[in-house]
Design a protein that fits this description.
The protein is of the alpha/beta class. The chain has 2 domains: 222 residues, Rossmann fold (3-Layer(aba) Sandwich); 70 residues, Alpha-Beta Plaits (2-Layer Sandwich). The chain has 11 helices and 14 strands. A 6-stranded mixed β-sheet has the order 6-7-8-3-9-10, sandwiched between helices. Strands 2-1-4-5 form a 4-stranded antiparallel β-sheet, with helices on one face. A hairpin with a 2-residue loop joins strand 1 and strand 2. Helix 5 packs parallel to helix 6. It is globular and about 75 Å long. Adenosine-5'-diphosphate binds next to strand 2 and helix 1.
Length: 359
């Protein structure tokens, strides 16, 4: 069931903690609190009154099509751009009033690879550790531990330019953790990677979470990634938060619990309407070239009827599959579009300034 998407109040999580955070010396209950945040570029509203919170140690996904406002949200949360109105707090620190404290608490992995290809893996980590004032004694242990965590120990002396894309992404992730941030922002961490490397990155993130007290906010346009990694997912569209819940609850919120994908040979002109009339059908999408995606609450009955109807009409069935609802269906339900149809943007996301630097 979907709770109020604007507040993101769901499951066992409560509202943002009152009185937590640095001022009282108590740990903040919520790692991230965003309240009625707005970003305007001139007359254009890129982020429109969005509120949500992320609990400590949660993996929280921001999912949305190109131009939805995900990067703008991350940029505001990581002190890169000013907020037009509203508030964002990171481990209790106000992004606008305490930007240095926020920067010390966060690690940010931009989409663009930014490690120095002429340095070795270990040198890249050491340089970053020095930039973040990690003391010499701690540095060696931190680098050793991170190399182990991202499975790059035996590559520590390799030049970064010799690494594969997936290994380089893992190095970037290790680098973002050298100063032991409490909150980790990852912008599309697996875009451009092959399927095997993507899974390796997922496993690595899960492994890191098992070893460190870390909250992760990740943006992605991969539904399977969001489904597998995230405890909760916020769907963002046109600058607004349109749904927020666990992947299971989001899927359960979509009318129809089964998806039939069917490929027909020369369907009749009224085929879409006829598919609509099958048992439990809540939506029919024509994907072109005789392909249909049908949501139904009774997969087995609708499938039987579909085959009988095709036989009667003399329409061939080239392929047929029945599966449970996926996050793709959730996305279509809340935005009216398919995420896979949206172009993947290839913008460059820059690092936030280090503590003490002016943005
Ligand atoms: P997403 O990350 O979800 O693809 P963005 O946050 O990058 O979306 O962009 C949200 C909207 O804000 C888009 O319409 C984009 O064109 C617009 N936008 C982003 N940055 C700027 C800017 N600096 N000036 C004007 N418009 C911007």
């Amino acid at each position: 069931m979907i709770s109020d998407p604007n507040l993101g109040n769901s499951g066992s999580a409560g509202r943002p903690a009152a009185g937590g955070g640095p001022s009282t010396g108590e740990p903040a209950v919520n790692a991230i609190e965003v309240e009625h945040i707005v970003k305007k570029y001139g007359d254009f509203t890129a982020v429109d009154d969005v509120s949500f919170y992320v609990k400590e140690e949660e993996i929280f996904g921001l999912l949305g099509p190109n131009g939805a406002g995900k990067s703008t949200l991350i940029r505001m949360m990581t002190t890169l751009i000013p907020i037009t109105s509203g508030k964002a707090r990171i481990v209790g620190f106000d992004v606008q009033k305490d930007p240095d404290d926020v920067r010390r608490a966060i690690g940010v992995i931009p989409q663009a690879l930014t490690s120095d290809i002429d340095l070795t893996v270990e040198e890249n980590l050491n340089i970053y550790a020095k930039l973040y004032d990690v003391s010499a004694q701690k540095r060696k242990a931190a680098v050793d531990e991170l190399l182990e965590l991202v499975d790059l120990t035996k590559w520590r002396d390799a030049q970064t330019k010799t690494l594969s894309g997936g290994m380089r992404r893992r190095l970037e992730i290790a680098r973002g953790l050298v100063h032991s941030p409490r909150i980790f922002f990852l912008d599309e961490p697996t875009t451009g990677l092959d399927p095997v490397s993507r899974v390796a990155v997922w496993e690595m993130l899960t492994n890191i979470k098992a070893h460190r007290k870390l909250t992760i906010l990740i943006t992605t346009h991969y539904m399977d990634e969001a489904d597998r990694l995230c405890d909760r997912i916020a769907i963002v569209d046109h600058g607004k938060l349109v749904a927020l819940d666990t992947p299971a609850a989001l899927k359960a919120s979509v009318p129809g619990s089964n998806v039939i994908e069917a490929h027909f040979d020369h369907p009749t002109a009224d085929w879409e309407q006829r598919l609509h009339a099958l048992t439990g059908v809540t939506s029919v999408q024509h994907e072109g070239a005789g392909m249909y995606r049908i949501l139904t609450s009774d997969g087995s009955k609708a499938t039987t009827e579909l085959v009988e109807m095709a036989v009667r009409a003399g329409v061939g069935v080239k392929s047929l599959s029945v599966q449970n609802t996926t996050l793709d269906d959730v996305f279509v339900h809340y935005t009216g579009r398919q995420l896979r149809d949206e172009l993947v943007k290839s913008y460059s996301f820059v690092m936030p300034p280090r503590p003490g630097m002016q943005p």
